[in-house]
Amino acid sequence: MTRSMVRIAIYDMDKTITRGPTWTRFLIAGAQRRAPWRLVLLPLAGVAALGHPLRLVDRAGLKRVTQRLMLGSRLSAADVRELVDAFADTIDRDEVMAEARDRIEADRAAGYRLVLATASYRYYAEAIAARLGFDAVVATEVRRDDAGDVVSGVAGENCYGPAKRRMVEAWLAKQGVDRGGAHIRFYSDHVSDVPMLEAADEPFAVNPHAPLRKLAAARGWPVLDWT
Q1: What is the CATH number of the domain that holds 109?
Q2: Does some domain include residue 216?
Q3: 84 to each of 59, 80, 126, 157, 183, how far by Cα in Å?
Q4: Which of 117, 114, 111 has its CA nearest to residue 132?
Q5: Residue 109: half-sphere exposure toward Cβ, Cα within 13 Å
Q6: 13 within domain boundaries
């Protein structure tokens, strides 16, 4: 790698940086703050989630349904800021793995530009990324009305699987980064991120579930086991 190379370290978020998934946790935290009665609807959100492996609902549809159940069909910009600030503080304090934090700091010290690439909604992923010192975020966008209020549903693509690679590539192009002049590290826990792992110069399987651990062994990708 030459000195003129642009260095970029791209991290998945859920179960790569955080100990567990964040979406359900955000929904519960939001319901607790806004309308605790909605917590009785949590089992319905669970039933909706069962529809995904049965291919009755895609991930974008699942986000739309569960947000509507737990947070309502609309959130004002002010409500979103309040929920997001409290939630991001909690995640930063309680859910970020120490090894992930150390690795992020090491990449920063080595001159890497830090990018968070996650299927989570930007409106809260960006707040978490800011607390960890990331430079940029590539994430799922939420639908908003003309007033800037959040309405349930995904705007554009859900930043997952092949779509994540497309969205990262679009971000690189927007930044004027020539792929041939960039050295990219990518970190993920899940086999759904294989398109990005294959696109990276240095792919890292972090706390990989069984399918990714098996694939990493076959491909010779480094495995990082963080607690």
Answers
A1: 3.40.50.1000
A2: yes
A3: 21, 6, 9, 22, 32
A4: 114
A5: 6
A6: yes
- pLDDT tens over the chain, length 227 residues: 655 789 999 999 999 999 999 999 999 999 999 899 989 988 888 887 776 665 656 878 888 888 888 998 888 988 989 999 999 999 999 999 999 999 999 999 999 999 999 999 999 999 999 999 999 999 999 999 888 889 888 999 999 999 999 999 999 999 999 999 999 999 999 999 999 999 999 999 999 999 999 999 999 999 999 97
On whether residue 203 sits in a domain, the answer given is yes
Please count the structural domains in the chain. 1
- Containing domain of residue 46, as a range? 6-224
Q: In three state form, how does the secondary structure of the chain look?
A: CCCCCEEEEEECCCCCCECCCCHHHHHHHHHHHHCHHHHHHHHHHHHHHHCCCCCCCCHHHHHHHHHHHHHCCEECHHHHHHHHHHHHHHHHHHCECHHHHHHHHHHHHCCCEEEEEEEEEHHHHHHHHHHHCCCEEEEEEEEECCCCCEEEEEECCCCCCHHHHHHHHHHHHHCCCCHHHEEEEEEECCHHHHHHHHHCCEEEEECCCHHHHHHHHHHCCCEECCC
Query: What's the pTM value of the predicted model, to 2 decimals?
Result: 0.93
